[in-house]
């Protein structure tokens, strides 16, 4: 069976973007692949080292969200990165063979240094972010890595680093891994910008029905549709793209009433909010239940780490043999 690896940083609440952009995809892989899904707390620490106290609560929140969304701890290996020390061991080996120029040229790195001004990211570890990510993937010899587009440069670096490893130590320890992008078109935030916690434009998996109604009510609609009798342009309306993702069965009727000026945007958004609330209801109920059972989550993560370590230790043995032979 082929192997999937992916990770998420425990830096805050999961939102609809995570659900349709990543988790749906992750759930699907469980039928065909051995899946390793890691809560990458070392990667979180690279950005959040000055507010590290939130990482542990975020880890449990994330584990509950994943399971509530359908990641099955029996089938998938769910674990905390820092519970498997081999990640850091492989990172060290890979750090030794990674030329500084590859990291300094990384577009994701340059963009983050430019855009994130709330934290000082000019650190030694942060430059090496993709080296740890490569170690995550290579430790499990993953064939497929579901990621967002912004992570493509990191996958390319992973391949370059693994080839360099095989070349230097004259052994095919690692093979190439493939990035898998989400098939669904990406969902924008409530304000039409990229959906992101830092923009405050998300609907979170933990949001209450009241919060969801209020958030959807505030969404920007087709700017050309000012009055009820104006015809609307659903393809230019962010609300409509949410229908596509969450209430696809209503797409045709909503298009008809919008283009025919049948109903107003307020009603349109109210119905959308109801649909999102119904989609999230089972997830929300399950996550609340899981969070109340801290012992169960601890157990899942502990067992996950044990299973992950079996594979991780085998790879590290091979790596040591190749390097120190
Ligand atoms: N860098 C990824 C992100 O921010 C998270 C991540 C860490 C990851 N290690 C990984 C993703 C390994 C895929 C594979 O989204
Ligand atoms: Fe958008 Fe709905 Fe208003 Fe049409 S009716 S412009 S789809 S909010």
Task: Give an account of the 3D structure.
The protein is mainly alpha-helical. The chain folds into 2 domains: 2-187 and 294-323, HUPs (Rossmann fold); 207-287, Tyrosyl-Transfer RNA Synthetase, CATH 1.10.240. Helices cover 56% and strands 7% of the residues. It is built from 14 helices and 5 strands. The protein has helices at residues 16-29, 41-48, 55-68, 86-97, 100-105, 107-115, 124-127, 129-139, 152-168, 209-217, 238-246, 251-259, 265-292, 294-324; strands at residues 3-8, 34-39, 77-80, 144-146, 178-180. The strands form 2 sheets. Strands 1-2-3 form a 3-stranded parallel sheet. The longest helix is centred in the C-terminal third of the chain and has 31 residues, at 294-324. The model has no long low-confidence stretch (mean pLDDT 95). Iron/sulfur cluster binds next to helix 11, helix 12 and helix 13.
Overall radius of gyration: 22 Å
**CA(first)-CA(last) distance:** 30 Å
CATH topology descriptor of the largest domain: Rossmann fold
**Cofactors, ions and other ligands in the entry:** tryptophan, iron/sulfur cluster
Structural class: mainly alpha
Q: CATH-wise, what's the superfamily of the largest domain?
A: HUPs
Order of helices and strands: EHEHHEHHHHHEHEHHHHH
Helix content: 55-70%
Percent of residues in β-strands: 5-15%
Q: Please give the CATH class of the largest domain.
A: Alpha Beta
The backbone outline, from C-alpha atoms, is: elongated
Overall mean confidence score, pLDDT: 95
Q: Provide the number of structural domains.
A: 2
């Amino acid at each position: 069976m082929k192997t999937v690896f992916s990770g998420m940083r425990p830096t805050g609440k999961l939102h609809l973007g995570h659900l349709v952009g990543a988790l749906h995809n992750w759930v699907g892989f469980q039928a065909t692949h051995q899946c390793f899904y890691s809560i990458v707390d070392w990667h979180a620490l690279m950005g959040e080292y000055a507010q590290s106290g939130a990482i542990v609560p975020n880890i449990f929140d994330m584990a509950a969200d994943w399971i509530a969304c359908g990641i099955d701890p029996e089938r998938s290996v769910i674990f905390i990165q820092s519970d498997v020390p081999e990640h850091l061991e492989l990172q060290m080996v890979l750090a030794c063979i990674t030329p500084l120029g590859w990291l300094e040229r990384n577009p994701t790195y340059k963009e983050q240094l430019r855009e994130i001004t709330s934290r000082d990211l000019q650190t030694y570890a942060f430059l090496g972010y993709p080296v740890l990510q490569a170690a995550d993937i290579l430790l499990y010899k993953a064939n497929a890595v579901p990621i967002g587009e912004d992570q493509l440069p990191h996958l390319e670096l992973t391949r370059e680093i693994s080839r360099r490893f095989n070349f230097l130590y004259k052994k095919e320890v690692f093979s190439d891994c493939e990035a898998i992008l989400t098939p669904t078109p990406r969902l924008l935030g409530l304000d039409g910008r990229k959906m992101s916690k830092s923009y405050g434009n998300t609907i979170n998996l933990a949001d209450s029905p009241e919060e969801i109604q209020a958030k959807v009510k505030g969404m920007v609609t087709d700017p050309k549709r000012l009055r009820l009798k104006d015809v609307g342009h659903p393809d230019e309306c962010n609300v409509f793209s949410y229908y596509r993702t969450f209430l696809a069965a209503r797409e045709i009727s909503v298009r008809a009433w919008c283009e025919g000026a049948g109903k107003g945007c307020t009603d349109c958004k109210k119905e959308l909010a109801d649909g999102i609330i119904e989609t999230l209801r089972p997830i929300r109920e399950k996550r609340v239940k899981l969070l109340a059972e801290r012992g169960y989550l601890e157990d899942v993560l502990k067992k996950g780490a044990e299973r992950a370590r079996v594979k991780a230790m085998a790879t590290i043995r091979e790596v040591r043999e190749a390097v120190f032979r």
